[in-house]
């Protein structure tokens, strides 16, 4: 690929790729089918971390898959993260139609999901809201409530800080490291993707998952920093869609009065106000808004009724679906 020098109007070659899988990059990875527009996004999402191979590479040729597994071992992650994505765009890849590959990938997802259609399964229930609005406490109470009724239920939380990706996110949130806004967004997304397969398995086995934060948090917080909303949503496409989103509504000023506020990077009043505005954009009629300023017991009772109705609906065979997919 040639690149025009804006000052002199001439073309010049970009510097060589900063890692050893140059030959592999000559192949058409169908990156556009994964909605990646730059080398940086691809590396962060697909190469730097351990993912579920079947989910990530199903749209790729077997040859590409094998070569990428080998290439990962020689990839200089630090160099790639510093690589300016605007230098190496994917326009150099062979011309071909990528939409059929993307559609085939989605169809494969949907075929897999369809295996549990009309069969009893667990519910995917997500709690969203500003920091310190009570999500973690209410999530734990919901799990105890469902278990008391004889339902199989588990508490999940994102980011999952127990994984290698989650540890990088944790260091960032605790102000122990610095990352570009887009890079940290992709890490948050990767953290959800590495749990996707297990999530689907649990749901099909009949376990209800109560999830403290999900993709909506990632999009709301990154877009509050000025990152394009649609760009933020793109890496989340193909994750499992929640059966229910519970939004614990609390004014940012009220949340800031709660204990522990300010311990982490994003816990600042003015920023939380921007996050609240982004949540309003993401919110759709299917969300259930709950006044989190009520006494904890009142919030708990309100959530219990909504959650139980959804759990019973999933036991009757409500099909799984994909997040933000056409």
What's a quick, concise take on this entry?
Residues 127-302 form the Thymidylate kinase-like domain. Its EC number is 2.7.4.9. The protein is α/β, with parallel strands linked by helices and 326 residues long.
Structure description:
It is a single chain. With 326 residues, the chain is an alpha/beta fold. The chain has helices spanning 22-25, 39-47, 53-57, 62-72, 77-82, 99-114, 135-148, 164-173, 181-193, 196-204, 215-224, 229-233, 252-255, 269-282, 296-315, and strands at residues 3-5, 10-12, 124-129, 153-157, 208-212, 244-249, 288-291. The chain has a five-stranded parallel β-sheet, with helices on both faces. A hairpin with a 4-residue loop joins strand 1 (3-5) and strand 2. Helix 2 runs parallel beside helix 9 (181-193), helix 9 packs antiparallel against helix 11 and helix 11 (215-224) crosses helix 14. The model is unreliable at 1-32 and 36-108 (pLDDT under 50).
How would a crystallographer describe the biggest sheet? Answer: 5 strands, parallel
Question: Which residue ranges are poorly predicted, with pLDDT under 50 across at least 5 consecutive positions?
Answer: 1-32, 36-108
Radius of gyration: 21 Å
Strands, total number: 7
Distance between the termini: 32 Å
Structural class designation: alpha/beta
Mean pLDDT: 77
Give the fraction of residues assigned to helices: 40-55%
Number of helices: 15
The fraction of residues in strands falls at 5-15%
* Envelope shape: globular
What order do the SSEs take from the amino end to the carboxyl end, as H and E? EEHHHHHHEHEHHHEHHEHHEH
Question: What is the spatial order of strands in the main beta sheet?
Answer: 4-5-3-6-7
């Amino acid at each position: 690929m040639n690149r025009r020098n804006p000052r002199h109007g001439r073309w010049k070659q970009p510097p060589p790729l900063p890692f050893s899988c140059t030959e592999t990059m000559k192949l058409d990875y169908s990156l556009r089918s994964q909605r990646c527009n730059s080398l940086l996004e691809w590396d962060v999402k697909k190469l730097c971390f351990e993912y579920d191979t079947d989910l990530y590479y199903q749209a790729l040729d077997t040859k590409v898959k094998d070569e990428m597994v080998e290439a990962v071992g020689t990839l200089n992650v630090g160099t790639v993260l510093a690589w300016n994505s605007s230098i190496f765009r994917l326009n150099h890849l062979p011309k071909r139609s990528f939409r059929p590959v993307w559609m085939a990938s989605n169809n494969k997802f949907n075929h897999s999901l369809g295996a549990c259609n009309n069969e009893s399964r667990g519910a995917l229930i997500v709690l969203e809201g500003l920091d310190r609005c009570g999500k973690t406490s209410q999530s734990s109470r919901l799990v105890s409530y469902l278990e008391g009724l004889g339902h199989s239920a588990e508490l999940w939380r994102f980011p999952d800080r127990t994984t290698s990706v989650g540890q990088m996110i944790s260091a960032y949130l605790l102000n122990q490291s610095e990352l570009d806004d887009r890079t940290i967004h992709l890490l948050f997304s990767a953290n959800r993707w590495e749990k996707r397969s297990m999530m689907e398995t649990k749901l099909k086995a009949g376990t209800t998952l109560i999830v403290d934060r999900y993709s909506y948090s990632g999009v709301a917080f990154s877009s509050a920093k000025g990152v394009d909303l649609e760009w933020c949503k793109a890496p989340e496409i193909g994750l499992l869609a929640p059966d229910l989103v519970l939004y614990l509504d609390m004014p940012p000023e009220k949340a800031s009065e709660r204990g522990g506020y300010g311990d982490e990077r994003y816990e600042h009043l003015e920023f939380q106000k921007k996050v609240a505005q982004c949540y309003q954009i993401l919110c759709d009629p299917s969300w259930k808004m709950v006044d989190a300023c009520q006494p904890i017991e009142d919030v708990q009772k309100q959530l219990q009724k909504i959650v139980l109705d959804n759990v019973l609906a999933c036991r009757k065979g409500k099909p799984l679906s994909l997040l933000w997919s056409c």
